[in-house]
Amino acid sequence: MYQRFLEAYPEFATTVTLDDLRATEYSRLDSLRQTYLDYTGGGLYAASQLRDHLALLATNVFGNPHSKNLTSLAMGMRVETTRLDVLRFFNASPDEYMVICTPNSTGALKLLGESYPFELGSVFALTADNHNSVNGIREFARRKEATVAYVPIVAPELRVDESALWDVLKSAPEAPSKLFAFPAQSNFSGVQHPLEWITEARELGWDVLLDAASFVPSNPLDLRQVHPDFVDISFYKIFGYPTGVGCLLVRKASAHKLMRPWYAGGTITFSTVATMDHYLTPGPAAFEDGTVNYLSVPAVTIGIEHIESIGIDVIHTRVMCLTGWLLDQLPTIRHSNGNPVVRIYGPTTTDRRGATLQTNFFDPDGARIDSYVTERMATAERISLRAGCHCNPGAREAALGFTRDDLATCFADTDTMTFDQFRRNIVGKTTGALRLSVGLATNFADVERYLHFARSFIDRPIDEIMKGPAAVGYVGA
Ligand SMILES: Cc1ncc(COP(=O)(O)O)c(C=O)c1O
Question: Positive or negative CA dihedral for 341, 344, 350, 351?
C-alpha cells in the first residue's frame, strides 16, 4: 500500500524528516499506541518544546513584565521578542501589524467584537461557514443595532455562494463601519475560502477579519501578500504547546477604529479616581487586560522555531498527500451492495481545501450511523476523531440539509418552553458529523489505521452497531 501511495504522491518523499521526528519528538504516539487525527481540535507538541521551555524557566528568574526591575525587564524583553517572532512567522511587517496577546482565538475575537465601532447603520457580514467564536460577534453587533448579514454556503462543496457574497459586500456603501469575517480554512469542511476576498472587500470599504485559526497549522499565511485588518490565532493549534496563548494581529492603520469598552490594569499609563479619567497605553498593551500569560509566552517562540526548523511548506506537502490518499480511498470503501460506507461533506478533491475531512458513516441500507457512536467506536480502537457540529452550526446546517423551519421550532418560544419541550424539538437537529484532521506528526500508518477502521463497517447493519458496546447507554445527541 505504501508503495502505491508513494507512486500516487511522490512528493511525500520530500517530507521524510517528519517520519524521523515522529520517531523522536512524537514517539509517545507510538509507545501509547495512539492514532491521533484531531489536529483541527489541537496540534501536538514536540518533546523538545517542553524540554526547552522548562530549561528556560529553570535557569532564569522572571518577574511580572509590568515593572521595570531586573526580572521584570528580562520577561518584558521575552514578550517583545515573541511578538517579533510571531510577525516573522506570518511574514508581517512590524510597521504594518501589531501582535496583541490573548488567551486564544476566541479571546482575540471577543476583544475585536467588543471594541469594533458597531452602531446603527453599520454592518457585520460573515460567511455561514464560521466558528461560533466568530458567529458570537453578531451579539455585539446586534446590541449596537448594527445589521448582521450572513453569506450562504452551498452543498455539496460547502463553498460560499459568490454572487450572494458580492451582493452583500456591495451593499451599504454608506455604512459608518462595516466588518466582514470569514475563515481562511473551514474547521468543519476544510474548505479554503479565497484570500483574494481580503483585498476586494477592503477596496469596497470593509474592514476584514480573517479567522486563521484552522488554516495556519499547515498552510503559510503571508501578511505581505494579503492584508486583513484583523487576524485571530490560537498557538496550540499550530504546535500543540502552550495552550492559553493566542493573538489578535491588527493592522496598525486600523487599530485606531477599535474602542475599548473599559480599561484595566496593564492597559493604561495613568488613571485617576478624582476625575475618573485614564490614558490608554499606546500599542498592543492597551488591549491586554491584566497580566499576560507571561511564563507561557516564550514557549510560543520555541514553538515557532520548531515549525520553522521543519518548514511550513514541508508540513503542507505532507498533510495534503495524506489527505489526497484519504480522499482517493474513502469512496472505494463500499458495502457488498455497492453503497458507500463513508460520505464526505465538502470538497472531495484536494483542490482549494486543507487537511480536515468531515464525514458520516452509513450502513448497507444507507442509514446514517450517529457520529457520536462512530466516535466511540474509533475510541475503542485508540483512534482520536471528533464528532459533533464542531462549533460551526452554519456548515453543519448546509451539510446535513437542515432548513430554517427545522431549526425555528427549537427557538420558537424559549421563554416558556420547558427543558423537556426543548429536548423534544431539538431531537435529530443536534446530529453532527465525524471529523478527521491530519497534522504535522501524522504518518501513513495512521491514515491506514483509519481506513482499516472505516472498512470494518462494511456490511454491518445499523441495528447490529446500535446493539454494540459503543452504543450502550447512548441516548442520542
Ligand atoms: C476556525 C476556528 N476559529 C476559532 C476557533 C476558536 O479557537 P479557540 O477555541 O482556541 O479559541 C477554532 C477552534 O477550533 C477554529 O477552528
Answer: positive
